[in-house]
Design goal:
The chain has 362 residues and is mainly α. It is built from 16 helices and no strands. The longest helix is centred in the N-terminal third of the chain and has 27 residues. It starts with 27 loop residues before the first helix and ends in a 12-residue tail after the last helix. The N terminus is likely disordered.
Length: 362
Amino acid sequence: MQNDAEKRKDTGSPRGTASRDGARGKPPADADAERETLMMELTRLVQKSVRESSWWERRGVDCSILTAAFISLPAGFLLLSSSQPLYFLSGVLIMGVAHAVITVKGTHLASHSALSESPAWANFWAVFFIEVCGSFSARAGVQAHVKMHHAHTNVIGLGDSSTWKIPFLPRSVYLFVAPLAVPVITPIVAIGQLKGQSPLQILRTVLCVCLGFFSQYYLLRCVSGLLCSSALLVMLLCRAMFSLPYIHVNIFQHIGLPMFSATNRPKRIYQMTHGVLNLPRNPLLDWTFGHSLINCHVEHHLFPFLSDNMCLKVKPIVSQYLKEKKLPYQEDSYVSRLSLFFHRYQELMVFAPPITELVGIQ
């Protein structure tokens, strides 16, 4: 599938890599028009499914999951006040799961304005989930994720997921220890991202992050009755509970797949189908992270405005269409990707990625 003149050997390609472009023998103008038609045809199929879906399917299911996470918080705080180890651990578990749902699923949907059709409400939810709950800058988060990562998926120097790389860390530390520091690193990185923002935006971000942090701390002290050190430790445990799969998912689904140069990138449908991978269904991660980050990541990158539930609904349409058109629909298991990254850590996470050139697709 890749050109013989490819600069370096591609790495970590899972099942579902594509064949050569079927339009290769056609004149450039005809081939380009056909490629545009592919994306437009798929878009029409998906939009038809969206129009036929109810509000409950488009947004209600995901809003209900987020609401359930918030409703579970009082039970978590009360259980943490218990002196019984089983009850206390149950409280930690509830708080950890709720935190993951709110700060991963919630912030991701909010960054894509997938929680409301109203621009004003979409902006409000972005600030609430990303800054108050996620301890990060909403402006920087949307810029990095939506405007860079999604617009330039797997393009070297733009959306190549290199921000997740820490080359000086040994593989075991990076994969199994360092992610536990995400709750501490996130607000520190957020401070660095405030550079260049207006004074009002900086003030808003600082106030919102402090509001989220001290609200949880206050409730742990006053409702759960924990001491200062115990409250901080519980906050760290709850916020770090899903940090390992969070980091893993972010690197598994892009790094090791074809990377493109900014000056010679393929059309969108080829860029997304070659540079994005789906993980299999996982009941826990599907609920906490959302389908668009786990088993519908290809669908999400093709149609980032869809909610998690809608990504799941259009998944059969997208997968069938891509397979009919002989386009890649890449899937691999969590364990397989973890094994790949563990054994080829230097190649994937330390060295510069190879640039892929797709024959007849540029």
